[in-house]
Amino acid sequence: MKKEVIGMLLAGGKGTRLGLLTDAIAKPAVHFGGKYRIIDFTLSNCSNSKIHTVGVLTQYSPLELHKHMGIGKPWDMDRQTDGLSILSPFQASDGASWYSGTADAITKNIHYIDQHDPEYVLVISGDHIYHMDYRKMLEHHKETGASATISVMEVPWDEASRFGILNTKDDLEVYEFDEKPKNPKNNLASMGIYIFTWSDLRQYLVDDEKVEDSDHDFGKDIIPSMLKDGLPMYAYRFDGYWKDVGTIKSYWEANMDLLEEDLTLSLNNKEWRTYSHDSNYPPEYIGETALVKNSLITSGSWIDGTVTQSVLFEKVDVFEGAEVVESIIHPSVKIGKNSKITKAIVMENTTIPDNVVIDGSTYDEPVVINQENYAEFNQAKGVN
Amino acid sequence: MEPLLGLINLDNEHDFLEELTYFRCGAATPFAGRYRMIDFTLSNMVNSGVEEVAIFTNHKYRALMDHIKTGAEWELARRHGGVFILPPDWNDPTDISRGDLRHFHNNRDFFHRSKADHVLISGSQYLANSPVSKAYEEHLATGADVTVLSTQVTEPDDEHSKLLRIEQDDDGVVKGFSSDPANPTVFTNMYIIKKDVLLKMVDYCIAYHKDNFFLDGIRGKLPDLKIQNFDMNGPGMFVNSIQSYYKHNLGLLNPEMYKSVFFKNQLVKTKLSNEPPAKYINGSAVTKSMVSNGCVIQGKVDNSVLFRGVKVAPSATVKNSIIMQRCVIEDNVHLENVILDKDVHVSAGQQLIGSKGKPYVVAKRQRV
């Protein structure tokens, strides 16, 4: 069936820089924002942009990610003929192999895309936090008649060398792609969101597959060779909130950003909802001795202690006298009496006993705590 | 276990919650922050292994249908079985049945088609989180025609005055039903009955122009039936008036009650939503309250139940109150002993104060 545009969501990366958080699960499945997983933001963007045909390319530790997505119901992608498809590496007649790069993952699923026969393909990744209407970007792509459109945003000049920088003419036509340049000529950074005219992309994917020393990567191989051949390529300027949550520090910051009031990224935005699973936990219970300041708290939680500037997921217990400050507490965590947790990310199902003191602000970045390692980080002296 | 058919009979339930039931039936009234009253009964059934549930409803059922939809949230969206909402749709010109017998008569197929030999019948006014599996085991073990489910009321209140009491012998065999306030064994309006006995009783009631299946068919034929009592033995709430509605909602703020109703057994299932976590903004002061997802709180909230998506402005105070979905409470508002139905907007500076015995109730979508 002919489709104007379908989405291909890259969700297979290991996310090594997230350390313990991605020890057992893929980065897109990491808990975020009190009740979400990172991938919910891109899936919700697709749904809100009326793109209901989305292939999700998974590879690394996909069990929880697959379970979370299911048949796409929370995003209204449980549909008769299209909807959400999970595309994991598979064994084919010519052998079995893993996805070896972002482009390779798409190449190995050309048959899936052909089946929908789209005019355009949106390529996005499941590890960014932002609200974006892809339809507007598609309009831009159609207006310029580009083969490829890359979404960009302005980053501070001193950070530009961390990103893929697009050098453009005044009308935003791209003439050069600089991957992490030492001396950036521009501060328009690629957000890893691409729209391709499928017939053009298809050709480059097929050709790239035959190049032996290729990394089969969009940024390193496909985009540069399209540019070299002079295919029309445009940047699309985005000026909302966007954050790559690829490191512990940026993950923690992005969660804290949700506590700010003036953000363009609001979970309470009824015009651009963020969809996820909901559970049957009862409303949270805020006890008589509780004190909650500038925080997000989710169903099933029980708060008798003090919670400041923190994000708490469902079924979190903070007992009397306990203090949680500038922290992210994943589901089903218990914080024992008189324990104090500062600037930490506490992973699912961890029970912190009474009188434990963990202070992430004494480290370079927030600390990630689980049942196995909390004792190492305990700074409490002479108690227990 | 042998299959058990569920029936929630709302036919006899009048609009017992004043303003709250102007536009909805009692069973569909929001309760405890994110639920509707019927969720408790429905969840108990599902959590006890019931896979087929019929709901007899006769009026104001729009909210009920919107809430239950396909039944997916209770695992009741099935290829076979699942949930059946059965409003009146009666076209049999020879039908002489009256009262709730019309529902039984006109939906006879539902009972015939089911493979279950026993039916669990319930109203919606007894709220508890207690599976009926044990009661069903007992029912099968004793071979009773009917097993009535009761609870012990140690602190009788107004809401118990309207309820039937069960008189039983030492073996739990039911000897009679009364309204004797001195008897602590109170009938929960839940009972398990053999399907063939049910169908026979329906025929009898219709033939003799009776109009209440339980009162005429079960209580009225007590001598002919083997009726057994089963004590539910756990905290439960009878909600049959505004006063009891108010009392039991706030009663859940007692930590023991909260834990026992929500966490002792399986979770109570309800329609899921897409609200974000509740947001507590600097300056908010919340104590002894239940707060649901989607709330944004800047003011003071004490001893209250907040449903999903409620907004409380910085210098507002909410005390001893029940605030339903999406209400907006502006600056300098003072609410005390108040029930706000859904979508109520309280403008800046307003003061609404009710009393514990007579809470101030504001109907749906009002602007105060």
TrEMBL record, chain A:
EC number, UniProt record: 2.7.7.27
Residue span(s) of domain Glucose-1-phosphate adenylyltransferase/Bifunctional protein GlmU-like C-terminal hexapeptide: 289-358
Domain Nucleotidyl transferase, residue spans: 7-260
Keyword annotations from UniProtKB, A to Z: ATP-binding, Carbohydrate metabolism, Glycogen biosynthesis, Glycogen metabolism, Nucleotide-binding, Nucleotidyltransferase, Transferase
InterPro entries assigned to the protein according to its UniProt record, in alphabetical order: ADP-Glc_PPase (IPR011831), ADP_Glu_pyroP_CS (IPR005836), GlgC_bac (IPR023049), GlmU/GlgC-like_hexapep (IPR056818), NTP_transferase_dom (IPR005835), Nucleotide-diphossugar_trans (IPR029044), Trimer_LpxA-like_sf (IPR011004)
Coiled coil (UniProt feature): none
Gene Ontology molecular-function annotations: ATP binding; glucose-1-phosphate adenylyltransferase activity
Pathways per UniProt: Glycan biosynthesis; glycogen biosynthesis
Residues involved in alpha-D-glucose 1-phosphate binding: Y99, G164, E179, K180, S190
Domain of life: Bacteria
UniProt-annotated site: Could play a key role in the communication between the regulatory and the substrate sites, residues: Q59, W98
An example Gene Ontology biological process: glycogen biosynthetic process
Alphabetical list of Pfam families matching this protein: Hexapep_GlmU (PF24894), NTP_transferase (PF00483)
Catalysed reaction, written as an equation: alpha-D-glucose 1-phosphate + ATP + H(+) = ADP-alpha-D-glucose + diphosphate
EC class of the enzyme, as a word: transferase
Subunit structure of this chain's protein: Homotetramer.
HAMAP family reported in the protein's UniProt record: GlgC (MF_00624)
Family of this protein: Belongs to the bacterial/plant glucose-1-phosphate adenylyltransferase family.
Functional note: Involved in the biosynthesis of ADP-glucose, a building block required for the elongation reactions to produce glycogen. Catalyzes the reaction between ATP and alpha-D-glucose 1-phosphate (G1P) to produce pyrophosphate and ADP-Glc.
This protein's name: Glucose-1-phosphate adenylyltransferase
Origin species: Salisediminibacterium beveridgei
Species lineage: Bacteria, Bacillati, Bacillota, Bacilli, Bacillales
TrEMBL record, chain B:
Keywords: Glycogen biosynthesis, Nucleotidyltransferase, Transferase
Nucleotidyl transferase domain boundaries: 20-211
An example Gene Ontology biological process: glycogen biosynthetic process
Pfam families: Hexapep_GlmU, NTP_transferase
Ranges where the Glucose-1-phosphate adenylyltransferase/Bifunctional protein GlmU-like C-terminal hexapeptide domain occurs: 276-351
Keyword match Transferase: yes
GO MF annotation, one: glucose-1-phosphate adenylyltransferase activity
InterPro entries, per database record: ADP-Glc_PPase, GlgDAde_trans, GlmU/GlgC-like_hexapep, NTP_transferase_dom, Nucleotide-diphossugar_trans, Trimer_LpxA-like_sf
Keyword set includes Nucleotidyltransferase: yes
Family the UniProt entry places it in: Belongs to the bacterial/plant glucose-1-phosphate adenylyltransferase family.
Protein name: Glycogen biosynthesis protein GlgD, glucose-1-phosphate adenylyltransferase family
Source organism (scientific name): Salisediminibacterium beveridgei
Organismal lineage: Bacteria, Bacillati, Bacillota, Bacilli, Bacillales
Gene for this chain: glgD
